[in-house]
Amino acid sequence: SALKKTKDLLRTDVRDLFKSGEILDEAKLEEFHRGLITTDMGVEASEEVVESLREEFGGRTVDPDAVWENVKNTLKEILKGDGSTNWDPENPLSPLNMATEGPTVILVSGVNGVGKTTSIAKLANYLTKSGKKVVLAAGDTFRAAAVDQLTKWSQRIGCEIVRKDPGTDPASVAFAGCDHAVQIGADVVLVDTAGRLQTQQNLMQELEKIRRVINKRIEGAPHESLLVLDATTGQNGISQASKFSDAAGCTGIVLAKLDGTAKGGVVVAIRKKMGIPVKYVGVGEQLDDLQLFSPDDFVEALLE
Ligand code: GDP
């Protein structure tokens, strides 16, 4: 499964620490804490897990299965937060706030290399397969290769793409994409944005400008603002994320590359530190490798 590496780590560094009949003392709890940290769950969440165990079982003889259940419950509670993540597992589009009338605009941001282009393609594929008419706005005008890649994806998916010359103001591409979507009666516009980090200040201003411009063309837009993070960067991705979340007005996270990392615990840290829900996870390089994020399923799969 996509979570294999994180799972293996939890098994060896956490689960296998406890044997039936053993006493759950402070030394064990400390080991447990270290194990949780290695999955990039973050200090706060790890402490919360350990605290719950201490309260429930501290200093007593422990059944490893009961410990495992307790961990699961704490993690689920953290991930569910205020309950806003209770979307319909049968409907991959349920986490998305759709416009009641006219095109829904979804802004997508993220630093170069995190998997932004691929994630946009996967989302466009989901939406198209669900019968939505999709327009891509190729706003990452600083990377000609990214625009070409997105164009290839659009051809495979069978959705439209609005692109302009390299170096064009990304906001103008975003506007044109929205405009085209209104003209042709499209359901969704996915707006790609630039992700070059060396000029962070400009990047944030650019994102704010894109939001203003989109909003001028389509009332209430953007309806969603998804930030793509790379799961393999673990905790490092979070500091990046907080910078984006203000400028882009993030409403959700797409956590790409969750396959191939033992840092899957970062999902928990993101929820804990940022308060923004992970809505989708990327689990491979193909169009179908995007999953709706479900706290229950995630925790059950992780602590199987
Ligand atoms: P961008 O620079 O942020 O637009 O990143 P790309 O979408 O071009 O992705 C960078 C690399 O990561 C590419 O080789 C993708 O195939 C790969 N990639 C993207 N998402 C995933 C994922 O969920 N899992 C895996 N294994 N690879 C991914």
From TrEMBL:
GTP binds at G110, V111, N112, G113, V114, G115, K116, T117, D192, T193, A194, G195, R196. Gene3D superfamilies: P-loop containing nucleotide triphosphate hydrolases (3.40.50.300), Signal recognition particle SRP54, nucleotide-binding domain (1.20.120.140). Part of the signal recognition particle protein translocation system, which is composed of SRP and FtsY. Its EC number is 3.6.5.4. GO terms for molecular function: GTP binding; GTPase activity; signal recognition particle binding. It comes from Thalassoglobus neptunius. InterPro entries: AAA+_ATPase, P-loop_NTPase, Signal_recog_particl_SRP54_hlx, SR_rcpt_FtsY, SRP/SRP_N, SRP54_GTPase_dom, SRP54_N_sf. It is an enzyme of class 3 (hydrolase). Residues 277-290 form the SRP54-type proteins GTP-binding domain. This is Signal recognition particle receptor FtsY. It is a peripheral membrane protein. Belongs to the GTP-binding SRP family. FtsY subfamily. Involved in targeting and insertion of nascent membrane proteins into the cytoplasmic membrane. Acts as a receptor for the complex formed by the signal recognition particle (SRP) and the ribosome-nascent chain (RNC). Keywords: Cell membrane, Cytoplasm, GTP-binding, Hydrolase, Membrane, Nucleotide-binding, Receptor. It is found in: Cell membrane; Cytoplasm. One of its GO terms (biological process) is SRP-dependent cotranslational protein targeting to membrane. Its main location: membrane.
